[in-house]
Amino acid sequence: MKHRIFFNILLLATTLTLLTSCGKLPQMEIDNAQLAITEAQNAGAELYAPEAFMALQDSMNACLEEIEVQKSKLFKNFKNASAKLLAVTENAAEVKLQTEAKISELKTEINNALNETTSLNNENKELVLKAPKGKGGSTVLMAIKGEIATIDNGLAEVAAIPDTENLNNKLAKVTALKEHASNINMELKTAIEKFQSRR
Amino acid sequence: MKRKKKKIIAGLFLLTFLLFAVLVVYFVLKCDKPPVSDLQWARESISKAKDKNAGMYSVKNLEHAEMLYDSAMVLWKTENEKFFLIRDYSLVRKYASEAQQLSKIAAINADSNSKELKNKICEEIKILQEKSISFQNNFKNLPVENYQKQYSKGKLLLAEAKIELENKNYSQAYKKTMESKYLIETSYNRNISLLNNYLSSSNLWKKWVKTTIDYSRKNKTSAIVIDKLARKCYLYINGNQTGQFDIELGKNWMGPKKYQGDKSTPEGNYKLTEKMENGKTKYYKALLINYPNEEDKKRFNSNKKNGTLSPDKKIGSMIEIHGHGGQGADWTDGCIALSNHDMDVLFKNCPVGTPVTIVGSMNTLEEYMKLNK
Q1: Among residues 131-150 of chain A, which lie with CB inside 8 Å of chain B?
Q2: Fewer C-beta neighbours within 10 Å, C or N terminus of chain B?
Q3: Each residue of B179-227: pLDDT tens digit?
Q4: Would you list the domain boundaries of chain A?
């Protein structure tokens, strides 16, 4: 009889230990996940990987909800929340890498576009000299020269924008300049070709 | 007896335990359930609103919804710290529900606002493109570099706005469209006002041109009419227009010539006074006109007297219609340059004494704008 009572007490103690051993708040995991999210945010994830960053924040909120669910219970189990937080931390690191890759990609794209536009505009300056000037050409050429100067100024402005600024805006600016320079290039080449074929 | 007593004690103990268990079960069942699904729905709803770009197009509603969600989470945390039997999640539920409702509204508003903004941008871009064409057609000859620069900048911003529109970044697109609108419209309006001011003499110029053509018809002679704004030189023989040539002028061609070296072309009624063959001029061939005429001298002297011109200024001379034109710019010192080929035609048909009428324009502002539409 004595043995039985002792056995029951032992069983109850073991069960209680098992039930409460998972009940410790995963504060370290929470801090790590939040730190990883902040790092991704500081890397520019909000701008350059907005969807991934939003998903990340949503996952973090879901984790915090899960923690509160467990805290509401008599016997808490944070195992699931810990696993989720670990996944969030890993995901945040991935988002950070993704952001850095996007930034690097944008920088390359901007530099390429800047170089292409500069050479296009230089070519335009030479083409203007060769372009036919008669029958209204002179006034058109004057306007084109003005446009070429504006593109030059625009290129200088874009080049002066620091990389810490929104690179998407910088890319939009340089793309517009490139399009403009390309249109002028085409216009000039067509005019020269027409003029030469008539001769 | 002792055994009986033990049984009673055990029974009482069991009864107390059962009563306690029943009470615990009662309170557990009665106590407030955690608001798990309420918070989850609110979070999902906020997430959906963000997907619809409510952060850009329904900022206030989304911010309010997020604030309510955060408050609900804080309250939930606070309630969880209380003893489980006295927890009350009603306020948490209320906030979560409000957050859900607001984020739903934010999503709907974001959708409609972004569509509305997109349509507005498209409309503005269309108007600006039309204005841009009108600008190119009407003002390409005006010597207003600053306005031209402003316009070019506006055009570039318009191109940027179109790129942002394609990228569905409507708020940036709208911002750039408005910046572009300001630049294009400001330069457009300044040019219109400049032209309006310049063309206020158009009725007088029309009379000059008519008189010159009538003279050519009556006297069976040639006549030359120069339209500075249109950059055209017209040749009349016996009152009929027989030639039309492109011209280039001085940098400050707009307005009458005021003094020597102002790079302006005079406006008035003149006559050819000398013909210079190739070799006698450095500009292929040249037709000299009698600038300054009596009117020019009168204006020049009056300007000096009233202080508009400094006393050291000279009136200038040697205004010619000459060759070497077609350079693609207004490059002369106030003369009128034609291509050598066109100069040959003019030279052949215009003897000394041919009337030369130089006007700002042969059209009023309305006529000019209509012609260039």
Answers
A1: 131, 133-143, 145-147, 149-150
A2: N
A3: 999 999 999 999 899 999 999 999 999 999 999 999 999 999 999 999 9
A4: 2-101, 103-198
